[in-house]
Amino acid sequence: MDLRHLNYFLVLAEELHFGRAAERLHISQPPLTRMIQQIENDLGVALFERTKRSVKLTPAGSELWQDAKQMLLQMQTVKKRLATHGQGQTGTLKVGYVGAVMHSALPTLLADFAKNYPNLKLHFEEQPNLNLVHELNNGTLDVAFVRTWLHVENLQEDLVLNEPFVAILPENHALAGQEKIKVKDLKQEKFITFTRECGPTIFDSFVVLCSRAGFTPHILHHASQLNSVLRLVESGFGISLLPQHVQNGYNLKVKFIPLEDAAENIPLLMLSRKENPNPALLNLRDYLKSSSVEKLIK
């Protein structure tokens, strides 16, 4: 007995009249009669007592009626739940990221996205760039956020935002009181920066900035962690040029000063497997591209 049979039985059990039941079901009476007979034959029990004047449920019919109503209600609930899953409103979205993206507008954006989709679970995992690519390819992750263009053939790269560079100086530096600094004014400085392996786009853009300002930077130390860069700057070993939002979440004795002539920007990118079927991924991508997100970034 399938759901269509079950529905025919329920309508007849409610109407207790073949003519009215057939009318509700938009069929003629003979097919309904045959369908009920088939159900009774399949179950091996009479469900209705039929006379020329009335139709009544048998004890077996009354029991099936209660069970059938519950079964249809459960099926309707399942259909609604699966429909929201198909729309990307429920389920799980596995999110990977490199640590540097946490010093940006991204955490706020993801928190707002989660509020709009309260039945969607976000699972987070921090990994280096190459590990994120591997886990995207094998399906362990749905999406990853990175700070560098990777140009992997089977991955989609969506630009979420661009951030300008700022100069990061010890608070007692001679230029720390400036509202803005020209890159060329940093020609004689010692620089603390990320290793190129950790942040190729940040490193290459930094070198381009200095080159356009007419000098090759004197790099005193390459660090692999943002905290290491900032603490070395705080301690007076050098200065750094990094994306604007790295100042979020730190209370160190350093100054973050905008650069007047820095044409280079640092991207925040969303990576995903091109054939990923998770509908929640489409919702996240659309959300990050929305006008409200652009306003938040600005």
From TrEMBL:
Listed PROSITE patterns: HTH_LYSR
Keyword field: DNA-binding, Transcription, Transcription regulation
Keyword Transcription regulation: yes
Family annotation (CDD domains): PBP2_LTTR_aromatics_like (cd08414)
Keyword DNA-binding belongs to the record: yes
GO molecular function: DNA binding; DNA-binding transcription factor activity
Family, as annotated: Belongs to the LysR transcriptional regulatory family.
Protein name stated in the entry: LysR family transcriptional regulator
